[in-house]
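RESIDUES AND SHAPES:
===
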Amino acid sequence: MELWRDGNRVLYVYPDRGLAEQWERSGAGTLHLTTWFDKDAQGIEYMPEDLGARAAPKHWAEKRQIIADPAVQAMSLEATRGEGCSLTQVRVMVSPKRQAKLDWNVTLKLPMRYSVKTQDRHETWQIEEMVTAADRVKQVFNQRAAYKTTDYIDIGDNESDPFLRKLIHLGFVSHDSSGFYDAEGHKLESGHSH
């Protein structure tokens, strides 16, 4: 997974799935989502009313930082290292069913490393590369700006478009628990599946 941030825009890119999700915060604080299908060079735009509770302003920190401030603060501070832009807090949480350790960059508000252990699973996330060049960040966002987009609410009215017909056939417009699917029609869980 790749996370790109540019002001009030956040882009999650899943290269192995040919999919990207762009979250944008409006001036009123509500969230707008565009799901990009890179192979088809097309996107589906979701207005706040299409997203329901997922568009609430309180979800912005989770989208921008991967882990929202309250979740970070709920973890015990074990150590601090570095200074300035590299100031990192090591935070831990231990419960009978779960152990978590987080290396949190305070300035960037990003997890540098995050490890979670449960009885049957151990998962670790770690930053492999950090890109700070403004022109490279703009390039990643601009790549998808040229794609054709359709409003989610208009998908059913555009069955003549082969891309949208495929999404309809795969059940993309099903109003199931999440209502979101990848390019192959597999259901995406609500929230982020990182």
